[in-house]
């Protein structure tokens, strides 16, 4: 990300991400929030692409921007509200405290990141990452990969059972 | 064969538990038969071990040791000596009797007998463990089944069974927490890292190496004293015992009063005295005073009780005082007496609770004022009561006499005046035991009980088994005392060396 | 034959014990069979005992040179005890007395207990009692004695409470056990002290060690041990102040009263002192105490007996009084007199009890002597035997009591005049109340039309005992009892004619007085009672000692017990329950933190994260500074 | 301005804090679920950034992202199912009304 172009793209993406994320919270309508989240996720995918994670960018768009958002939207629909207005109101009571906590957290993190910068060295060759990831997934991380598969299966069954109700 | 004999004794109830899991809960008869057979097999093997134990040789015999967690120095070690073998025998005989005394349990019998067998395994394991880790493991195995059994099969009288079960469990767990701290400290202190071991035999040598300083022994012994003292219902940590027994079902009362309490005394001797001799010596005066509290105070309280189980509950507190006295006198005679008294009290209190269980089961009454003239309708139960009662009073010819005499003699050598107070306990014991016996057994016929049958069939087994042991060891006390003494007598020089250690009294005197 | 008897003397207690086990386990329901077994065992014991006596006489076994046989009972480091057989004239005499009276009582009971539901049980208990008592007699050491001492106590408890369906019987049994238990407490401590001081409780060993010990250490500690040991006999032999159980013990069947509470068990205390006389003889202060306590008990019990109305109660107090005599004899140093009186007393007192039992049996268990009356004609044999008994106890020549009582009084007179005077007054009172009993029961108005016939089983023992009561004294006197049963030097057999004359005259006077009051009614007893007023009431109510003890008991047993229980419930348990409640209360407070809102938890969690972060920042800065400053 | 690891990390921290803020102030379970996703993504950005900027011979960081995304997907599925169940039982998705665990 040494060149200026990349820097500009990064800042643009960053602004989109932050604004979209803020939109999720700010929107009073839950559907708007979901749309805003899609935007956010796509922007993040862009960020990944910028950081030489092109496969992940694709995954991000497919899974997050596609599946997850659709799932959530579906969920919102299935709770069968007539109007989606004012479904997503923030609780004013907690705002100050929450702002304090999050602000504090951000400040701390910021201090740490700025005060103790890590060396930024890119040694990886540019190009297709899919091969390398496949090598890793089916080699070094074989077991984790299988366990993830089992986890997904369990989640699927769990979701079905939970949503359907075990006794029905 | 002889190596794994103890493991087989331990395993027999476990195998029965596994078998029971596959038996439908409705097959009540088979469940009870399997439990009876398992305990019977254990008992027979224990008797074999008891007969074949060489008193002259003494020490640990029938040892078996398999390394388990070698990094921590844990090994599955079992073995018996003259201290643990009588306790093992006691456990098995009471376990066998307890199964038969629960013969009429019809509410969830499967669960009941499974828990009972687990409980017995735990207790047995505690007594024969040659490894502190196994000891703790088995001890913790014991507490939980008891809680469940009290809650489900208990009875509510003065206090609810939930309260009783909770009190009992919490007391024992708090006690074991202290104990655990002490044991871990001991483990860490006794040997340098890399050589650490849980082997009790090795730990018993640690004080000779000088790794256990005197102050360390004093502190750790105090922790153990609180732990084991609570278990032994040492005054003032005794109130769980009457309430617990009152709430518990018969079999649990029998095992608890008969054997479980004895883990306290056993632990004090095995870990307290043999591992931490200086600590034992230091705290001995305090133990004596508290033990006198047990003997006299609990006897007084027993005198005014209205519920049969409470009388016997307090009576067991009182008798445990004798055990503590025998322990704290710290000489071979008194120690022999203390261990023998644990056996004696185990047998008689188990018999007592079995009889009370029958009476309660048949009449649904436990209040002394409401029971009267049981000898008319239930002569056999009356015989059981008389045997247990007279043994409790310390009548020669029954098991209770010689251990008490031995304790008194040992105590007399050290603290003659306190011994006199302790001996006065025999009068109080006579008062409360006779008061109960004459009120419930004798007196005019109570026609309301005419339809109630006497004990018969399997119900007679506890009476017969426990009663015959009561008389056998009463007439031939050498059978018991000889075995214990075979292990205790070699400690003579060990105990004599203790005379140089300071006791609390000396330190106290120094302060003033 | 002699050797056989001695070598097999251990069978004497063992055979009745076996009878107990056999009857108790198998034949309790077979009445005749159980009685047969018991009598058979009793006969065996008696024959063996008699053979032992013969052997002792023949083999010249003396008090100094007893025959001893023992086996190890317990042996552990620092402590060992034996059980065994010790035959010397003392124990041989006791053996024969006990086995003879036991046998006669068993025969008597065949008739007396007829029709009772607990027939088998009765004979089982009696057999157990004989076994224990005989075992006590041949004890070789204090522990063996204590063991059997307790066992006879158990039998006494069981037999007093034999009619367990009667509340009075069960209370009496309890009282007997507990009261004697208080005595046993002292005895046990005494034995423990002996064991501690000398390392042994064996009679023969102690006998050899003692003189050496006394020479070295004096008698101070020994006196205390002696007092402790003596507490046992106080309880067992019904000495003041632990005598209260004995009159109540009459709740048991009459044969039991005769055997246990007159002839044998209650003299165990006397026997114990006699057995360990080698110890007591060294302690003059203690002997003095024993003598005075015995004399006081004798007088005190006699003064109660005068006013009692129940026949067995009178006899019970008389027993206490006679036991006091025996103690007094021991106290004044005459073991022979004491043992002699023990022998004769066993015969005439069991005779009196059995007779009383026969009387009560005949008239539907009526106990009040003033409701009997005029039984002379209806029960001639009982009347004759009772008369012999009364004359014997009153000390009229030539009956047994005369000789033994005279020896005691002579011995007392030799030591202390006041003791002699008390003894003589007691003898006078004894003669009076026994005559009163005899006259009231057998003379006067007939109050019972129908009288049950006394069975032969009951008559034979009465006859045998009356012969013994009549002649045992003279026989013993002539036969050299004093040579035989003695401590130290043999007692020369000479009669102090003066003393004998005085006591005989007093006895005759007492009987005459009783005749005037109760038969010819010259002085009416009621009027005398009224005139005596206070004294009569006090005596009739047994000096209110029972009531006093009841109050003591209520205060020191029940009262303290209640206080202790209160402490247990509300202080010890109170603390525990308070702690538990406190825990629950705290958990209530802390559970308020659980709002059920995940957001709250998250917020708190992140507060923690921030704190950690801040800490890390500060700490890392410090580390960096240190690193920069070359701190590492 | 030169973009380095620090900038990306700050971006991810900001995203994370926004997500946290959302979780804390929102009452709607769906919104909360979304915010959780945002936070997960912030973490994923970190993975990607570390993998990109730090001297690392292979793509382990990206593999971790794959696992993270897998878990996130599973979490969304189960979470949605739970929300349905809650909606079914409580007839609301307002988290304030669902406080049965309140002590």
From TrEMBL, chain A:
One of its GO terms (cellular component) is plasma membrane. Its main location: membrane. Its EC number is 7.1.1.-. It is found in: Cell membrane. The keyword Membrane applies. The chain crosses the membrane at residues 6-27, 34-51, 57-74, 94-114, 141-163. GO terms for molecular function: NADH dehydrogenase (ubiquinone) activity; quinone binding. InterPro entries: NADH_UbQ/plastoQ_OxRdtase_su6, Nuo/plastoQ_OxRdtase_6_NuoJ. It catalyses: a quinone + NADH + 5 H(+)(in) = a quinol + NAD(+) + 4 H(+)(out). Signal peptide: none annotated. Keywords: Cell membrane, Membrane, NAD, Quinone, Transmembrane, Transmembrane helix. The keyword NAD applies. Belongs to the complex I subunit 6 family. NDH-1 shuttles electrons from NADH, via FMN and iron-sulfur (Fe-S) centers, to quinones in the respiratory chain. Couples the redox reaction to proton translocation (for every two electrons transferred, four hydrogen ions are translocated across the cytoplasmic membrane), and thus conserves the redox energy in a proton gradient. This is NADH-quinone oxidoreductase subunit J. It comes from Pectinatus brassicae.
Automatic annotation (TrEMBL), chain B:
Residues 129-429 form the NADH:quinone oxidoreductase/Mrp antiporter transmembrane domain. Keywords: Membrane, Transmembrane, Transmembrane helix. GO terms for molecular function: NADH dehydrogenase (ubiquinone) activity; NADH dehydrogenase activity; ubiquinone binding. The keyword Transmembrane helix applies. It is a multi-pass membrane protein. The chain crosses the membrane at residues 6-24, 31-53, 73-100, 112-128, 134-156, 168-188, 219-237, 282-303, 310-330, 342-360, 381-402, 414-437, 463-484. Its main location: membrane. It is found in: Endomembrane system; Membrane. GO terms for biological process: ATP synthesis coupled electron transport; electron transport coupled proton transport. InterPro entries: NADH_Q_OxRdtase_chainM/4, NADH_UbQ_OxRdtase, ND/Mrp_TM. Pfam families: Proton_antipo_M. GO terms for cellular component: endomembrane system; membrane. The keyword Transmembrane applies. Belongs to the complex I subunit 4 family. PANTHER family: NADH-UBIQUINONE OXIDOREDUCTASE CHAIN 4, PROTON-TRANSLOCATING NADH-QUINONE OXIDOREDUCTASE, CHAIN M. This is NADH-quinone oxidoreductase subunit M. It comes from Pectinatus brassicae.
From TrEMBL, chain C:
The chain crosses the membrane at residues 6-27, 34-57, 90-110, 122-140, 146-165, 185-204, 210-231, 252-274, 286-307, 314-333, 339-360, 381-400, 420-444, 456-477, 497-519, 598-620. Pfam families: Proton_antipo_M (PF00361), Proton_antipo_N (PF00662). GO terms for biological process: ATP synthesis coupled electron transport; electron transport coupled proton transport. Residues 73-123 form the NADH-Ubiquinone oxidoreductase (complex I) chain 5 N-terminal domain. One of its GO terms (cellular component) is membrane. Residues 139-430 form the NADH:quinone oxidoreductase/Mrp antiporter transmembrane domain. It is a multi-pass membrane protein. InterPro entries: NADHpl_OxRdtase_5_subgr, ND/Mrp_TM, NU5C-like, Proton_antipo_N. It is found in: Endomembrane system; Membrane. The keyword Membrane applies. One of its GO terms (molecular function) is NADH dehydrogenase activity. NCBIfam families: NDH_I_L, PRK06590.1. Belongs to the CPA3 antiporters (TC 2.A.63) subunit A family. This is NADH-quinone oxidoreductase subunit L. It comes from Pectinatus brassicae.
TrEMBL record, chain D:
It is found in: Cell membrane; Membrane. It is a multi-pass membrane protein. GO terms for biological process: ATP synthesis coupled electron transport. Pfam families: Oxidored_q2. Its EC number is 7.1.1.-. The chain crosses the membrane at residues 6-24, 31-53, 65-87. InterPro entries: NADH_UbQ_OxRdtase_chain4L/K (IPR001133), NUOK/Mnh_C1-like (IPR039428). Keywords: Cell membrane, Membrane, NAD, Quinone, Translocase, Transmembrane, Transmembrane helix, Transport, Ubiquinone. GO terms for molecular function: NADH dehydrogenase (quinone) (non-electrogenic) activity; quinone binding. It catalyses: a quinone + NADH + 5 H(+)(in) = a quinol + NAD(+) + 4 H(+)(out). HAMAP family: NDH1_NuoK. NDH-1 shuttles electrons from NADH, via FMN and iron-sulfur (Fe-S) centers, to quinones in the respiratory chain. The immediate electron acceptor for the enzyme in this species is believed to be a menaquinone. Couples the redox reaction to proton translocation (for every two electrons transferred, four hydrogen ions are translocated across the cytoplasmic membrane), and thus conserves the redox energy in a proton gradient. Belongs to the complex I subunit 4L family. This is NADH-quinone oxidoreductase subunit K. It comes from Pectinatus brassicae.
């Amino acid at each position: 990300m040494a060149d200026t172009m990349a820097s500009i793209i990064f800042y643009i993406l960053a602004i989109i991400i932050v604004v979209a994320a803020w939109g999720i919270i700010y929107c009073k309508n839950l559907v708007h929030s979901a749309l805003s989240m899609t935007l956010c996720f796509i922007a993040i995918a862009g960020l990944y692409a910028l950081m030489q994670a092109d496969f992940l960018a694709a995954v991000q768009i497919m899974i997050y921007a596609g599946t997850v958002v659709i799932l959530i939207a579906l969920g919102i629909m299935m709770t069968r509200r007539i109007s989606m207005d004012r479904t997503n109101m923030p609780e004013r009571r907690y705002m100050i405290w929450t702002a304090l906590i999050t602000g504090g957290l951000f400040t701390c993190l910021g201090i740490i990141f700025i005060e103790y910068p890590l060396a930024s060295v890119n040694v990886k060759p540019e190009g297709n990452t899919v091969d390398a990831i496949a090598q890793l997934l089916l080699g070094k991380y074989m077991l984790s990969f299988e366990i993830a598969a089992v986890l997904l299966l369990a989640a699927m069954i769990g979701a079905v059972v939970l949503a359907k109700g075990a006794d029905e | 064969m002889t190596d794994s004999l103890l493991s087989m004794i331990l395993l027999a109830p476990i195998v029965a538990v596994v078998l029971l899991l596959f038996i439908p809960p409705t097959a009540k008869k088979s469940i009870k038969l399997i439990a009876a057979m398992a305990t019977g097999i254990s008992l027979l093997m224990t008797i074999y071990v008891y007969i074949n134990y060489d008193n002259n040789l003494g020490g640990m015999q029938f040892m078996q040791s398999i390394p388990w967690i070698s990094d921590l120095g844990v090994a599955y070690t079992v073995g018996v000596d003259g201290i643990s073998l009588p306790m093992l025998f006691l456990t098995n005989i009471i376990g066998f009797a307890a199964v038969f005394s629960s013969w009429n349990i019809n509410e969830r019998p499967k669960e009941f007998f499974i828990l009972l067998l687990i409980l017995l395994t735990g207790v047995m394991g505690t007594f024969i463990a040659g490894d502190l880790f196994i000891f703790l493991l088995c001890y913790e195995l014991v507490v939980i089944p008891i809680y469940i059994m009290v809650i489900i099969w208990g009875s509510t009288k003065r206090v609810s069974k939930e309260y009783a079960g909770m009190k009992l469990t919490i007391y024992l767990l708090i006690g074991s927490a202290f104990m655990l701290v002490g044991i871990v400290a001991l483990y860490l202190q006794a040997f340098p890292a890399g050589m650490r071991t849980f082997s009790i035999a090795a730990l018993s040598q640690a004080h000779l190496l000088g790794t256990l300083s005197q102050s360390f022994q004093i502190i750790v012994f105090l922790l153990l004293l609180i732990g084991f003292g609570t278990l032994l219902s040492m005054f003032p940590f005794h109130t769980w015992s009457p309430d617990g027994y009152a709430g518990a079902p018969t079999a649990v009362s029998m095992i608890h009063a008969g054997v479980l309490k004895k883990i306290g005394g056993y632990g004090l001797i095995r870990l307290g005295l043999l591992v931490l001799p200086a600590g034992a010596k230091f705290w001995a005066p305090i133990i004596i005073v508290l033990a006198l509290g047990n003997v006299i105070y609990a006897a007084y309280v027993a005198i005014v009780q209205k519920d049969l189980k409470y009388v016997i509950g307090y009576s067991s507190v009182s008798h445990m005082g004798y055990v503590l006295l025998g322990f704290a006198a710290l000489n071979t005679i008194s120690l022999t007496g203390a261990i023998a008294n644990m056996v004696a009290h185990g047998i008689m209190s188990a018999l007592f609770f079995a009889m009370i269980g029958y009476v309660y089961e048949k009449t649904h009454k436990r209040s002394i004022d409401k029971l009267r003239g049981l000898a008319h309708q239930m002569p056999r139960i009356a015989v059981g009561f008389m045997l247990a009662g007279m043994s409790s009073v310390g009548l020669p010819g029954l098991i209770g006499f010689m251990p008490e005499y031995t304790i008194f003699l040992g105590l007399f050598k050290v603290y003659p005046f306190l011994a006199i107070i302790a001996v006065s306990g025999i009068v109080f014991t006579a008062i409360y035991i006779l008061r109960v016996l004459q009120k419930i057994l004798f007196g005019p016929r109570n026609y309301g009980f005419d339809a109630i049958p006497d004990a018969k069939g399997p119900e007679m087994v506890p009476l017969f088994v426990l009663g015959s042991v009561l008389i056998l060891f009463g007439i031939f006390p050498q059978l018991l005392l000889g075995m214990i003494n075979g292990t205790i007598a070699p400690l003579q020089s060990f105990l004599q060396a203790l005379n140089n250690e300071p006791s609390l009294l000396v330190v106290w005197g120094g302060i003033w | 034959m002699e050797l056989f008897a001695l070598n097999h003397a251990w069978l004497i207690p063992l055979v009745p014990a076996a009878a107990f086990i056999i009857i108790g386990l198998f034949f309790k329901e077979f009445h005749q069979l159980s009685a047969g077994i018991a009598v058979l065992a009793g006969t065996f014991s008696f024959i063996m005992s008699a053979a032992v006596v013969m052997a002792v006489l023949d083999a010249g076994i003396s008090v100094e040179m007893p025959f001893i046989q023992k086996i190890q009972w317990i042996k552990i480091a620092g402590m060992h005890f034996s059980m065994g057989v010790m035959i010397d004239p003392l124990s041989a005499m006791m053996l024969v007395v006990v086995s003879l009276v036991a046998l006669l009582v068993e025969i008597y009971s065949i008739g007396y207990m007829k029709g009772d539901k607990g027939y088998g049980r009765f004979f089982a208990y009696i057999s157990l009692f004989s076994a224990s008592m005989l075992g006590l007699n041949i004890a070789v050491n204090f522990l063996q004695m204590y063991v059997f001492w307790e066992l006879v106590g158990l039998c006494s408890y069981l037999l007093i409470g034999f009619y367990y369906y009667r509340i009075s019987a069960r209370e009496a049994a309890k009282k007997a056990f507990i009261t004697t238990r208080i005595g046993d407490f002292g005895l046990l401590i005494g034995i423990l002290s002996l064991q501690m001081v000398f390392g042994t409780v064996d009679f023969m060993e102690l006998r050899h060690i003692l003189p050496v010990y006394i020479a070295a250490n004096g008698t101070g500690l020994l006196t205390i041990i002696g007092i402790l040991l003596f507490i046992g006999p106080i309880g067992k032999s019904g000495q003041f102040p632990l005598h209260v159980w004995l009159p109540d013990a009459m709740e048991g069947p009459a044969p039991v009263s005769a055997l246990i509470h007159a002839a044998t068990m209650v003299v165990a205390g006397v026997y114990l002192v006699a057995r360990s006389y080698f110890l007591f003889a060294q302690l003059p202060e203690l002997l003095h105490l024993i003598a005075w306590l015995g004399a006081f008990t004798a007088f005190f019990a006699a003064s109660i007996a005068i006013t009692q109305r129940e026949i067995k109660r009178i006899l019970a107090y008389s027993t206490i009084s006679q036991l006091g005599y025996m103690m007094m004899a021991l106290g004044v140093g005459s073991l022979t007199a004491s043992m002699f009186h023990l022998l004769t007393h066993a015969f005439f007192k069991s005779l009196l009890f059995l007779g009383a039992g026969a009387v009560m049996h005949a008239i539907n268990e009526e106990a009040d002597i003033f409701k009997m009356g005029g039984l002379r004609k209806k029960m001639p044999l009982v009347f004759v035997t009772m008369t012999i008994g009364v004359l014997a106890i009153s000390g009229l020549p030539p009956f047994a009591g005369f000789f033994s009582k005279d020896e005691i009084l002579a011995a007392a007179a030799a030591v202390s005049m006041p003791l002699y005077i008390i003894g003589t007054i007691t003898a006078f009172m004894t003669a009076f109340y026994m005559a009163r009993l005899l006259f009231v029961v057998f003379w006067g108005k007939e109050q019972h039309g129908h009288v049950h016939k006394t069975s032969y089983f009951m008559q034979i023992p009465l006859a045998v005992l009356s012969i013994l009561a009549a002649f045992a004294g003279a026989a013993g006197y002539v036969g050299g009892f004093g040579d035989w049963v003695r401590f130290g030097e043999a007692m020369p057999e000479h009669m102090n004619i003066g003393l004998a004359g005085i006591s005989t005259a007093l006895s005759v006077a007492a009987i005459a007085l009783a005749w005037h009051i109760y038969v010819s009614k010259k002085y009416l007893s009621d009027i005398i009672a009224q005139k005596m007023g206070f004294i009569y009431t006090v005596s009739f109510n047994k000096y209110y000692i029972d009531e006093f003890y009841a109050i003591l008991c209520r205060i020191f047993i029940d009262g303290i017990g209640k206080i202790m229980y209160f402490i247990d419930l509300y202080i010890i348990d109170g603390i525990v329950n308070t702690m538990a409640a406190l825990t629950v209360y705290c958990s209530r407070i802390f559970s308020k933190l659980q709002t059920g809102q995940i957001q709250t938890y998250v917020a708190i969690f992140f507060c923690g994260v921030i704190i950690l972060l801040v800490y890390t920042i500060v700490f890392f800065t410090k580390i960096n500074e240190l690193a920069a400053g070359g701190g590492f | 301005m030169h973009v380095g690891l620090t900038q990306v990390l700050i971006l991810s921290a900001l995203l994370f804090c926004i997500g946290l803020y959302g979780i804390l102030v929102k009452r709607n379970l769906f919104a909360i679920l979304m915010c959780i996703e945002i936070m997960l993504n912030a973490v994923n950005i970190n993975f990607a950034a570390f993998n990109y900027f730090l001297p690392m011979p292979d793509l382990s960081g990206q593999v971790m992202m794959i696992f993270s995304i897998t878990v996130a997907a599973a979490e969304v599925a189960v979470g949605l199912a739970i929300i349905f169940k809650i909606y079914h039982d409580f007839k609301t998705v307002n988290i304030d009304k669902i406080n049965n665990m309140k002590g």
